[in-house]
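Hi R.,

Quick one: here's the D-aminopeptidase sequence you asked about.
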Amino acid sequence: MLTLPHIGVLPSGPLNAISDVAGVTVGHATLAQDSIQTGVTVIRPHTGDPFRDKVPAAAVVFNGFGKSIGLVQVQELGVLETPIALTNTLSVGAVATGQIISAIAANPGIGRTDPTVNPLVFECNDGYLNDIQAMAVTAEHYRQALDSAAAEFSQGAVGAGRGMSSFDLKGGIGSASRYATIGGQQYCVGALVLANFGKLPALTLAGQRVGAQLLALNKPDSATPEMGSIIMIIATDAPLDARQLGRLATRCGIGLARTGSIYGHGSGDLALAFSTAQTVPYRPLEPVRHSSSLQDNLLDPLFEAVADSTEQAIVNALFAAETVTGRDGHQRQSLYDMAAGQTI
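And here's the predicted structure, written out as tokens:
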């Protein structure tokens, strides 16, 4: 019988989700009919307009087999100016269009009296379960996901995670949080993943190699090379600058590796971290920016929180997912269904 483990020793927030970071919300638009098994997930960094009030951010590429949009400007300027969107590989353009439309509606000067906006869309390939060539996701689905964003949200086979596979099982959206204490002050770190990676023999849960046991129950084609991806998003209320957030994003790789990933050749493995502690105004009133950030030598508790919450989010995605049948009768069993009646 499967029991959901708690990764590490740090406590989680009340929701054990990225939205334990105050102001962060998540919404989904899920398409689930016959061969269309896909969707959009949106992460809002705060309740305001990120074009007007940007947040510090940084992205890290572990393995660049991906087709995301917007990373170049994030790396150059170190800020987010739209919500973060997740979808399937061939729907990046449609979702970016939705982001642009939404930003222009809130800021009519974009591209005229104001600069253009930097849409930020991450993707994974859900083509095993979803008819990805149908390109069923539209700009309106981005709007639906954005409008539904809330602190409490579903995980598993929902939104962008609807058609995703992980360790030859059903993958999808997972989230978790951890509290870290620095200098007597408690900070929250939240993770959200779009899990679409891994081969079953490598699956490791809380340090236990369970993949080999599951292979005895089911025989997926685990000899084929890994062709999946994972997107890892970190939010924190700790005061950090973009350089420090890049260091946090790098620690996502620890949590990812613990679950059995080797960042395979065909896997796109990307992480992004942002801080809600302070915003960067679009039109500053003063020429010098006044901000604060933690000392670098105090960041270890946050690194631990990132590693543990990332691993927990991946585990939560597997535990939350349901069995899905999609394109051409392809099916991915949930972890629970594959392990039914077994003690693991």
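The chain has eight helices and 17 strands.

Cheers,
M.
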